[in-house]
User: What shape does this take?
Amino acid sequence: MNRRSLVTFIVVLGTMMGAIDSTIVILALPTIVQALHSNLFTIIWVILIYLLIAAVLTTQLGRLGDSYGRSKMYNLGFVIFTIGSALCGAAPTDIFLISSRAVQAVGASLMQANSGAIIADYYPPNERGKAYGYTSVGWNIGAILGIVLGGIITTFIGWRYIFYINVPIGIVAVAFGIRYVKDVNVIKRKFDIAGTIILGILLTLVTYGASDIAGEGVKPFNLTLITLGLLMIIPFIIVERRSEAPIINLKVFRNRVLTSSLLASFFQSSGYLATAFMIIMYLQGIRGLSPFNASLLLVPGYVVASSLSPFVGRLADKIGARIPATIGVAMMMIAAFLYSRLGLNTSLDYIILVSVIGGLGSSMFYPANNSAVMANSPKEMYGAVSGMLRTLGNIGIVLSYTLAIAISASVIPRYVAFEVFLGTSNLIGGLSKAFLNGIHAAFLTSVGILFVAMVLSAIRGKEARQLMAQLDPKQQSSK
Assistant: This one.
């Protein structure tokens, strides 16, 4: 195996670990709540704190990779992620667990921010789609493993081992990373500390306010938090326009393809990333399935996405990202609409079919869109743009979860909704119908958001990948 293949394997491994952690935690929430004598309003921050930190830090940590070496920052991310995983597994209280997830998120952010740039360093533009296809495979395999292992480990071994499982994998990955991933194009870059702080405050206020609506209903307190958070957009834009190294570099948006690709990623994440979470809630809250059995119905969609992603990546290398990415997000929009038609007794085969449609969409969108972002980025900004891509995606994920929870929980008593989210209660009669209406509203909201993503993807313009490859000097690492 040559160096480039080994580097791709290491990046895929990091992607897979992040995906495992995203799905495995959702399934373990009921057990964690009971084991640590907590409640959903607190434990939901095991997910939200991870997403918030990733959203705030990813761009800056990508810039750190540009300045001090992407391989160093990526490997450091693996080390911190592994330490955070060990701390999560040993957590004696819910607050300690949330704090440990914050440590884990810093490590994950370092890996996310630099993984795309490392691929761009080692592959010319006309071959990156294939490589991003493999990273997409890593994500989907990780999601499948998270679903399967989450049920098995939580049920038969103990919830702590869903975190401990990362430790040996992390140690092996760090050893390989230090040996084989080397720095390319190290350029000193400045940082946007003020912008990072404002973005952190903004997202925390909005996220906390939205989650409080899910838990307490609409009240002046949570509406005030959301309003203050939205008002923080004004100073954030002012600071970003004046900063020498902004989190969101407005100069990047002069490139039409890059602009549309970044914004398409944001709206796709906002519209679709909480879909699996909502379907699991439907299956266990209304249909009475266990979280593990409910999750298994989504496996076919992930399998399809894993199988096709490399082929779609190669297609994007040849014809550009616009067509495959636009078709992909359109299929996700169709899947969200079909989910919005779920009834109290819909066939489980219907759900499997829709998950496959969504999986096809994912396999077409991610490798094509990611390769378009990096192919149209200035080489000296690979780390910053890769970080910006993940920042916008992570902000979208935060919005996706908070919108899904707030909308679906707004139609039934909050304590009942929380019991459903935890998988500890099944609904019957009128409550079941009401909760289903809430789920319908959440999915229809997703359809609207995904339509925006589809339009942005369609208007991105054509790319000439072969011409880009000729203009892009051949990197030493790809020899």
Observations:
- The two ends are 13 Å apart (CA to CA).
- Confidence is low (pLDDT under 50) at residues 465-471, 473-479.
